[in-house]
Each structure stands twice: as C-alpha cells, then as structure tokens.
C-alpha cells in the first residue's frame, strides 16, 4: 500500500506537472552508483571509470567468487531501506533511479529477474516512505553515449549503430511499462540518460528522434497514464532533437553543471517550454559548492522547474548529502599499477561495504541547507537576485574568475571568488529562503549603506547608498 503524501499519477497539464492534489514542484535526489557504478564516485581515475572496468579490477584482485559476493553485498549496502527513509525525512519528495540495462537484460535479450528485483525493491521503498521514483535508463543496451556513464562495451553509442540494441531497448521499456503501469509512486519514464554527447549528437540526431518516437509508441501501447521524459543530446543540454512534441503527457529534461546559475543558463529551455507548452525538469545538477547549488536551485524554483540533485551518496565527498568514509588501504585498489594481496584487498572491500551504509555516512548539512534554502549559509552576493532578473555577469563589478563555476569537489571559495556586486541607492538584492534567519552579517565596503529586512520569503538587502557587497553570512 502506497503512502504517497500526494495521490495520483504525475502528469503534464500545460507547462506544469500535476497530480490529483494540484501543481507539483518536484525536489529529488539521484541514486547514482547503485545499479550502475561510476568510477569518480569511488575516487577512481579514468582507467576505472565504467562499471565494466571496476568489475574487472575487483575480480582481478580478489577472484571471481569473492567479486560476485562483493557485488551482491554492495547492492544491499549502498542503497537500502534506511536510505529511502532518510531521503524522505530530509524533505526530498522523489528519487531518480539510474538503471543499467546489463543488470536486467542479458546480451541475448532475456530478462534478468535479479535485476528487476532491485528495481522493485526501490519502488516498494518509495511507496513505503511516501516518495515518488523516476525510472531512468542510464545505461541502454549497447550504450547511448559511448562513454563510461552508460557502461558501453566498446566506447561507442552502439544503441544507434546496431539494430539489435535498438530492439532490446524497446523491449526493455515495454517490460518496465508492463510491470509499473499501475504504480502511482512511479513518477515517470526517463527514456535515455544524456544520449549522444560530443560529435555523436550531430551524427545520430535523426536516429535519436526516431528512437524516441518508437519508444513512445511502445510504452503507450501498454501504459497510457505515466509521464514520459525526454532528454536532449550532449549531456542533456542540446534540445535540438526535442523541437517537436512526442506525446501529450510528456516532460523535457535538461541537466546543468558548472555554469553561471542565472537565467542565461536556462533561457533556451524556458523558450522551448513556452513554445511547446510542455513541462520541463532539471534532472541532474550539483557537484559544486553549497553557494552554487543554492543559487541554481532557487533559479529553477523561481521558474517553476522541478529538480533532482546528483547524487545522493559518494565516497569522501563535500558535494552530496551523504559522504562515506574512505577505507584505509583504498589506494591499493584505486592504483591500477598496484598488485596487493587478495586477502588484504578483501578486508579493504569489507570496510568499504560497512562505510557506505547510511549509519556510517557523514551528512553534508551545507548541501542540504543549500538545496532547501535553509538560513545557515554563507552566500556570495552573486547568489542573490535582483528585481530585474539581472545576470550575474551584469551584477558583478569585477571580472568573474576563471573556474568560479567549476568547484567540482566543493572546495570553499577563495576571497577573490566572492566577486563583488555593486548596488546603488534604492536597489535591492534578494536571497530566497525557507525561513527567516535569526541573524546575519553583510560583508560590504560600507555595511551601513545596506539595510537588511525579511519580507516573508526573502532576505532583502536594500541599498541606502552605493556600495559593493561581497557576501552575506546567515545564522538560523
């Protein structure tokens, strides 16, 4: 029995997502690395980036039997019921579940029930804890990107090169639709994650459109109620393949990382939303500082765009809600030139399995405060908004430093990266917050030139006279 806080299937009405209770503004988190391992989340380098590479390394180090045991235990430890309970308790309303086709479908197209059992486990936990779950085909048969993130075997997007992979992808979505067509907790079907990056986006653009049409037809023959999501090519940033509608009950998805967190970064997506009268959704973003995450998330919400933070948990991280401790000896696994004793490696892997359990992870509170706009942050002045919707580049009174938007490990800003924002008499700089802070400190050339007031939804800096503001420190 579902315990959804809001009932009904998620569906599109005009440019909005709705359910039986009305308009939705989804706030979620992605379960990356669970069903499709990504090397950077293990603190591995490029030689251990894909699931196949990681699997081969572990099997080489400890043997086939122990490797099989490790992966079975990993699926139980990395994401479990306690993760879903905590996700709901923290305030998220949905999860995005990346699926690797290799986990649910053999090379000949036969289904792997053990893989579907894991998906069912996640859907059932979503129901139990009042969450919705977006089914995301992160690694399609043959690979839709030709990179490590889709588990492609030969480093090419062979989904678009070999008809058999296309057939298997259609068959897989038919199977998912058949199994989940009656489950309200399923948010929708995210058909392909980040298809056709780089040069492939041009070579196979028409193939992507045709595949989306065929997948839509296949799903709709079985399920006419669930939302279908379509991602653009080139890491879900190029929406040229999404120029026309595919379905009446659709949403378009974009991903945003390492960009200026203001209207300039989403203007093209807003234009497509308005032209097609379809909802849009930010399906992956994060991997940055709390200030950047705050500014980006507020941007999406101002425009009525639901979002999903990527990812929920990583090893030794500042940028995810949960950080697992790095086990002693981990470098022996990460270093491809190392040939440690198998028993030593096994002890390290067992420590890893313990470290990734929720009870052992460290909560990165600043990340959570950022996504939910809680008043316990240090926010650069550029993270605020003006009444005119001025871009950050236009707000700042000094050049934006190289790399400001690329704090991929979440390292704090240097003094120079708190780029000053000029305010003139009568102007207002606003910071949207979930609640009023109990106190604040403004770093400005002339702090007395700025009055600070709470207007019920934003902390507003009102300039009494011209000055330069660098940041504001909030306390709850």
From TrEMBL:
InterPro entries: GH, Glyco_hydro_5, Glycosyl_hydrolase_5. GO terms for molecular function: beta-glucosidase activity. Keywords: Carbohydrate metabolism, Cellulose degradation, Glycosidase, Hydrolase, Polysaccharide degradation. GO terms for cellular component: cell surface; extracellular region. Residues 79-286 form the Glycoside hydrolase family domain. One of its GO terms (biological process) is cellulose catabolic process. Belongs to the glycosyl hydrolase 5 (cellulase A) family. This is Cellulase (Glycosyl hydrolase family 5). It comes from Kribbella caucasensis.
